[in-house]
Every structure is written in structure tokens, then in C-alpha cells.
Amino acid sequence: MTRTSRKVPVRVDGRELVLTNLDKVLYPEVGFTKAEVIDYYTRAAPVLLPHLRGRPLTVKRYPDGVGGMFFFEKNAPRHTPSWVRRVRLPVPGSTKNRETIDFAVIDDLPTLAYYANLAALELHVPQWRVSPEDEPLPPDTLVFDLDPGPPATVVECCEVALMLRDLLREEGLTVRPKTSGNKGMQLYADWDCREEPSAYAKRIARLLEKERPRQVVSVMAKKVRPGKVFIDWSQNNPAKTTVAPYSLRAASRPSVSTPLLWEEVENCERAEDLVFTAPDVIARVEEHGDLFARA
Predict the structure, then answer these.
(1) Ramachandran region of residue 238, left (φ > 0), alpha (ψ -120 to 50) or beta?
(2) Is the domain of 150 the same as that of 39?
(3) 144 vs 180: CA distance, rounded Å
């Protein structure tokens, strides 16, 4: 893709888009531009889109790059093209006193490219989808967000992830690991609605905390977290979102929330072992396909 600050009209799967400021550097430390962000999301689309389809979208936009101001956006902007799917959903307890929000849903490549052009670097979605009639469906995914309290790192997260994998296997759940793209990691499992997901995840987190009190904590208070891994079970609240698999993160480098092989989790010795940038992830997808594909 040619780097230019001009407006560039393109056609993506039959949809007309105008790309802008393609030479703008969004990751200054490594000179990664908006053109490269759009290129990454376009190339990652075959494995990324299945994890976005049907899920109300929250984005984290960085119009001036990762070193500048950013904002979360749930409501689809007024200038959103008419062909972008939108769903109007209730938002009880909204901090902006709104009764509903018109969420965008990324169901296709043109919509993904549209948001990449908005410098929506991070894509966050809930653990539930909407129906073709735009009605919320029951959660289909359970997530455990593992957050290391310094000096713990993702190495300690991997140790806890293996414990969780074995515990959840006994519960009949198959778990998939991914990096957060930041300092921690997440574990996902297909969810069968056997009980309320937050209550279930909380119970599992507290059980592991009881078994491994020197390694695991299940409460958010930072004073009890140094050197331990916080298992954030609350991400299963239907009002919360988690960064999507294959989403970029707003770090110094264009790191990605990257699905992992369990062998990589088992063999992790340094935090750097599980840092993957956009080019790394494209190479991984070419080698492994979608490691986060449902069974």
C-alpha cells in the first residue's frame, strides 16, 4: 500500500471507502503507520472476523498514535456508513445517562477496514453475541483474564494458566490461551450456560486461590497483588468487554493479542517469549491457521 496523506478511494468487497492519512505514524517507536495498521487488519481478517461477528463493538481509538490522546467508543459515529451493521441495545447504568447505545458490529472486511482507518487500534467485544434480529443472546464464551502483579510477569501467568487448564478440564471445559498483547494473558472456553458465568468463574478463581495462595489472588485490591496473578473473573459480566483475539494493542510496538499453543505456555521462560507483533502474527497464522478456532 502506497504511503500518502491524500484521501485514497478504495473498493473493499464491493463497498466504497476513503482511506486518509495513510502515512501517519501510529506507533512512533518503530515507525508503524496507519497504512500498516490497515494492512495488518486486512491480512488478519480471515482469522479475526470469526471472533468479532455478531458481537457489539467497543473500540479504543488513537487518532494521533499510541503516544497521543485516546478514547473509548461504543456508540457508532454519526458518519458511520449505512452499510455498517448497527444494533441498538439497552445500557443500564450508563455513565452518560443513555438508555440505549447504537453499537457497531464488525461482520465483514469492509467494516473492519473502516474502523482501522479510524485508528481504532484496539477492538474489544463481550462474551455474547446478538441474533440476526439484533437481540442479545446468552453468553457463548467464558473468559479468565490473568493479570500479573509486579514483579510477576506473563511467566507466572503461564503457570496459573496451566493450573486453570487442568482444573477446567476436570469440569469438562476445553480452554484456549492467548496473550493480552500487553502484560498478561487470557483463557477462553466455550460456555454451555450451566450457570451464571461470572459466578462460575469467581468460584473457580477462589478455588485456585485457596489451593495456591502464594501464586493466585481473586480480588482486585492492588495491595494484595504484588508477585501474584490476579484471576479477573468479572470479565464475564455482560456489560464488560475483553480485547479480541488478533486485535492490536496500543503499546510501544504494534503488539497483538495472540492465540497460543499450549506448548508455548508450558515452555515460557521469559516475558519476551510471548510478545508478538503484527508481522509475527501474520507469519503465525500462515503456519498454524487460527489457533483460537472453536472445536
Answers:
(1) alpha
(2) no
(3) 11
DSSP per residue over 247-265, as a string?
Answer: -B--SSS-BB--B--HHHH
Nearest to 124 by CA among 145, 109, 138, 110: 145
Q: Name 55's Cβ contacts closer than 8 Å, sequence gap at least 6.
A: 105, 106, 125, 126, 128, 129, 130, 244
| pLDDT at 1 (0 to 100) | 41
* Domain extent for 27: 8-125
Quote the cell numbers at residue 254: 504494534
74 within domain boundaries:
yes
What pLDDT does 113 receive? Answer: 98
**Cα–Cα distances in angstroms (integers) from residue 43 to residues 55, 133, 159, 254, 274, in the given order:** 21, 30, 32, 15, 21
Name the 3-class secondary structure at 61.
strand
CA torsion sign, 203 to 209 to 210 to 212?
A: positive
Same domain, 148 and 231: yes
Q: What confidence score (pLDDT) does residue 227 get?
A: 94
Rounded distance, CA 139 to CA 155, Å? 30
Residue 131 DSSP class: -
Residue 290 in any domain: the answer is: no
Q: pTM, whole model, 2 decimals?
A: 0.95
Q: Which three cell numbers stand for residue 94?
A: 450508563
**Which residues in the chain land under pLDDT 70?**
1-5, 92-97, 295
